[in-house]
Amino acid sequence: MAFYVVQFLTGLASAASLFLVASGLSIIFGVTRIVNFAHGAFYMIGAYIAFTLTEQLSGALGFWGGIVVAAFAVALIGVIVEMVLLRRIYHAPELFQLLATFGLTLMVEDLVVLIWGPDDLVGRRAPGFKGAVDFFGQNIPSYDLFLIVLGPVVLGILWLLFQRTRWGVLVRAATQDRDMVAALGVNQKWLFTSVFAVGVFLAALGGALQIPRDAVHHAMDLRIIVEVFVVVVIGGLGSIVGAFVAAVLVSELNAFGILIFPKISIILVFLVMAVVLIVRPWGLFGKPEAAARKTPGLTVDPWRPLTSNERLAALAALVIAAMLPLFAGNYVLTVGSEIAIFVIFAVSLHFLMSVGGLASFGHAAYFGLGAYGVAFLAKMAGLPMVVCLLLGPLLGCMGAAVFGFFAVQLSGVYFAMLTLAFAQIVWSIAFQWVSVTGGDNGILGVWPSSWAARPSHFYWLALGVAALVTAALRAMVFSPFGYALRATRDSPLRSEAVGINAKRIQWTAFVIAGTTAGIGGALFAYLKGSVFPDNLGISLSVDALVMVLLGGVETVSGAVIGAIVYKALNIWLVSQTDLSKLVLGGFIVLIVVVFPKGIVGMLEMLAQRRRKSSPPGSPLLAKPIESAE
Amino acid sequence: MSVAPPLLAVEGLSKSYGGIHAVRGVSFSLRAGEILALIGPNGAGKSTCFDMLNGQNKPDTGHVRLLGEETTGKRPREIWRLGVGRTFQITATFATMTVRENVQVALISHGNQLFNLFGSAPNFDRGEAGRLLELVGMGGYADRPCGELAYGDLKRLELAVALANQPKLLLMDEPTAGMAPRERVDLMRLTAQIAREKSIGVLFTEHDMDVVFEHADRIIVLNRGTLIAEGSPAEVRSNPQVQAVYLGEGLLYDAEHREGAST
After folding, report:
1. Please, are residues A413 and A35 in contact by the beta-carbon 8 Å criterion?
2. Which helix (H) or strand (E) holds A57?
3. pTM listed for this prediction
4. Residue A354: closest C-alpha in chain B
5. Does A494 lie at the interface with B, CB-CB under 8 angstroms?
6. ipTM exceeding 0.90?
């Protein structure tokens, strides 16, 4: 019995940090409507700075002072980030905001390694809370008890702040209707900045307070951000009480889940989240979100199928690409194969994102599942390559069918967070279930059959599949299904009113995209000869997003160009610098801020400008037709 | 002898929010080809009533029947499949698609081709899409992006979309809201003409009394959730209770005074 009580208390102690970070995210979202992906990064910087300060300053005052100063320092960094970056993208689509803050996260990951080194740092114990309390023969660290008390105290302070101060009233008002608050003459800029500072302060404090419990390391940002997303999805974005309850719930599920499913405890959290989402899609304490605001002028030009000339040009490009083995060496061909595979991956996400309006932040899960599917079939069942390539993607298809069913119940940022959480769950299973997946060591020796073993042959295979997949998805954009999918994206209200079951359409699109990604993953397994958990990791998901964005979200097939440019750049970059994440993150931020239409989008816009300026009567000036009588 | 059921039969429809009775025991019916206006002051329960007919809201009690078939509690998309087209107070269209594609989406849905992955949508029922657009006077706009249409044209596009499933009933929520006076007359004249030609029943809510009295065959009046009057435009116009609701207590006093005088 005592053991369970202690387990319970450990859970409560973990909840404190989680609550601090989640409430910060929630407050920021409530007012600015930005889901701050970089929140985990601020948490991590908080921990690093606190580590340095508490090492430098001595005594109890040094320790506690160090923690508080660290949180303030990070809040200051947050203010700078808000003023320099976020102010430029408040009116950008949600996806762009998520990506920009993700780019920031990538940069921070390399920066902390640059400053503090790659090793885990173990901080000192908290003065006054070094011992443990005996509880019927079980030890409870007294610092845990401190954290257990701290959680509700912070909740109370936040409550007072929001109920009893003028600033709090403004924040609550802005959470309900920020345009109205602005119309009432409140300086919105500073309100947003201050809210962001408070949110970041809470994140950094959460990180700093973890020092006595956990080592500080450079991957703690992603771990916490996934948990925080789960917490806010369960608790409801924008609700602080929700964040508290959900943080306790998730921490307890983790604490007791370890006893029930020692290896895959995260499954339990996932199940609870799934149930909450089915019963209350907006979270336990959240409010149903009004339909996401449409970004005006995002897409004005309707899509059209390729003209016969353009079709010939595409075919010519394909023929030229197919001639690569005539003059390129093996290394170039391997890179070419990899690029072709990423074209498959990118167009699959593009289909979901551009055509369906569903920005998945965990698309790599289905890519990786396809890869693992092939590895299982090839290594365990010993099936030949052709069979594996045909059946392997089915694992991606099944994963997409299960996760997609839940994910399409949501939209916008909730959809993005949920897909990210799902991907992280799949990753954890691949990582932790060592007996089946080999864990971190992966599955090795997935080699192609002799007919595809030569680099040139494999290149042709990858290129052929990529061309087929791209053409098929493009055809689908202009199929009745594609129209229906675009209809659900453009107006859920109108599509329901013309008999369209939007969720089923979107689910189908999710499964199509997941299966296609699985095809890419299956080829990837053979290209590399191995499968690792990284094949379904977050960074791969983000690679896909960047490829789509780089090509242009508003285009039909921009992802192809995006994938080619990005992958080539990426391979080159990794060979040139150790700070690839820093460069990549900076690159992402740059695209979002100065280049939001992507390469193909830019080209189309330029072409259109030229077209529009030539004929005298632009359509906008056309006379309104006579009324019908 | 069995009498054919009316196109739309509403019986004892009620809906409360907390202690507020938004709609109380509303009953009415609508024949094919008839144009029925649902009017009432702000807060009378028009929208609640309307939403219960089109499936966006579920009544606490009461029934809605379409040609004798129960539609109470069905989803909007299921009600659409039974032959009910609708337009919205604030137009809802597919902004990134062309005018023709907007109509084609409805035709695709009507033809049960929503999950057709490899057909050609640009050629889907192109002729029918063109006919519908001609019908509402939008034939010349087929290839225009829907996002750059003027508001009055959007309303007409909505009408074409609503007609795509050859509906028996059209539900129009404030069809002329936000339009210029001339556009209002044109749109309602067009609607009335189509309704009579195709024998479609039309139920619309409206604030503009000129539109209501000119185009409705029959009018029902809601006030504080209950139906207070029903009849031809002339009857409703001269109904003292309706006058009271719309014009205030002074006239009500006048009416009562006259009533008292006559007895």
Report:
1. yes
2. none
3. 0.85
4. B96
5. yes
6. no
